[in-house]
Amino acid sequence: MKIVVVGTGYVGLVTGACLAEVGIDVICVDVNNEKIENLKKGILPIYEPGLDEIVERTFKKGRLRFSTSLSEAIIGAQVAFIAVGTPPGEDGSADLQYVIQVANTIGTYMSGYIVIVTKSTVPVGTAAKVKEAIAGALNKRNENIDFDVASNPEFLKEGAAINDFLKPDRIVIGVETERAKTLLRSLYEPFVLNGHPVLFMDIPSAEMTKYAANAMLATKISFMNDIANLCELLGANVNEVRKGIGSDARIGTKFIYPGIGYGGSCFPKDVKALIKTGEQNNYKLRILTAVDDVNDDQKKVIVHKIEKHFGNNITGKTFAVWGLAFKPNTDDMREAPSLIIINALLRKGATVKAYDPIALNEAKHLLSSDVILCDDAITATKDADALLLVTEWSEFRLPDWQQIKTNMKGHVIFDGRNIYNGEELKEKGFEYYGIGIQ
């Protein structure tokens, strides 16, 4: 079976590499020549644990190839995944121009029956637009070639994407015909030996499932952050509250950890896109509007705590920031809370010294040159008036507090992820501020 994956970003590269890992012939296509040449050399555009090994192994064995020519790659392909970006427009809606461009190109060069699968996160109705674009391109060629469209949303967690793809808890596929269903069932058969289901449904339902899943997870996060802020006002400890509600199987323990808001390429974009879809259909998604508002405010919570501690004057103060990526095990800084926090500190006249185990190169493109990027966590604390824990990387969990105390000019910790024991830090001579804790 020959598969084409268009787009070598996070979703496209993981999809292509994992399909090649189980023996499928895969060509990953991208318009960025530099990215393609780097991939041929084993230089990946993203960090994802385990991905580089799979890419190197499958490329050497010839099962994974890279190309800038979709017109050549599409010839003879049985399935084409569209995994290009769908960035948010100014109004929050998903920009589908790249998806439609790919569909036009496929329709211009396809030579036989093929299933075109939207893998990108796209609004309900996108597959119909893809189908229309391909049909239009075929009409211009005066060709009558059979094809199907399908929706196959991804549910990959950054930092655990390889395991999620190779051992999925479910695979969602929206199809219109039995022919497409049979082909895609065969394609995914190696990935469901764990007994987890392939859920076939109509295309609009599959497109909506992706948005609904991310919106639900974002809702849990914002709900818990809202509760955390109220806990502080009432003298309750949100960590205890979390345990109390998480023991209820109907609620569960996942995504109820309070913090400084969600970020990344999925939750912020998808929540806004779903809100916009509602508006376009004269329906106000009131809960998700609140989820989005709470998250925007939550990213500023730690700045408010800092200002209060320092009497609303942090000019000339130095802050050590641990963690820049929006979550551990990725270099992704899109919509990361660190960006909001650091920019706010700089605007107020502070100095920022930051460290992240993986995201430093990405930070150079996104942060002001005024930010001092450090090679290790301890160096970042030198002469700092306060330490901010922003991303809960494992290496930050048990640091040498005595050395940090010696390094720092002030001894205050702002824990944006509640990973430290405040009482223990107070015994060591630090002032401690968490989220949802007095």
In short:
It contains 18 helices and 14 strands. By secondary structure, it is α/β, with parallel strands linked by helices.
Can you count the helices?
18
Helix coverage percent: 40-55%
CATH superfamily of the largest domain: NAD(P)-binding Rossmann-like Domain
CATH architectural type of the largest domain:
3-Layer(aba) Sandwich
Topology:
Layout lengths: L1 E5 L3 H12 L3 E5 L3 H8 L10 H10 L3 E4 L2 H4 L5 E4 L14 H13 L4 E5 L7 H15 L6 E5 L9 H6 L4 E4 L3 H11 L9 E4 L1 H32 L3 H9 L20 H14 L5 H13 L2 H9 L8 E5 L14 H11 L3 E5 L4 H7 L5 E2 L3 H4 L5 E4 L11 H7 L4 E4 L6 H6 L3 E3 L5
Parallel strand pairs: 1-2, 1-4, 2-3, 4-5, 5-6, 7-8, 9-10, 9-12, 10-11, 12-13, 13-14
Write up this protein.
This protein is an alpha/beta fold and about 450 residues long. The protein folds into two domains: about 1-210, NAD(P)-binding Rossmann-like Domain (Rossmann fold), CATH 3.40.50.720; about 300-435, NAD(P)-binding Rossmann-like Domain (Rossmann fold). About 45% of the residues lie in helices and about 15% in strands. The protein contains 18 helices and 14 strands. It has helices spanning about 10-20, 35-40, 50-60, 70-75, 95-110, 125-140, 160-165, 180-190, 205-235, 240-245, 265-280, 285-300, 300-310, 335-345, 360-365, 375-380, 400-405, 420-425; strands at about 1-5, 25-30, 65, 80, 115-120, 145-150, 170-175, 200, 320, 350-355, 370-375, 385-390, 410-415, 430-435. The strands form three sheets. It has a six-stranded parallel sheet with strand order 3-2-1-4-5-6, with helices on both faces. A six-stranded parallel sheet has the order 11-10-9-12-13-14. Helix 1 (about 10-20) links the parallel strand 1 and strand 2. Helix 5 (about 95-110) runs parallel beside helix 6 (about 125-140), helix 9 crosses helix 11 (about 265-280) and helix 9 (about 205-235) packs across helix 12 (about 285-300). The longest helix has about 30 residues, at about 205-235. It is elongated, with a radius of gyration of 24 Å. The mean pLDDT is about 95.
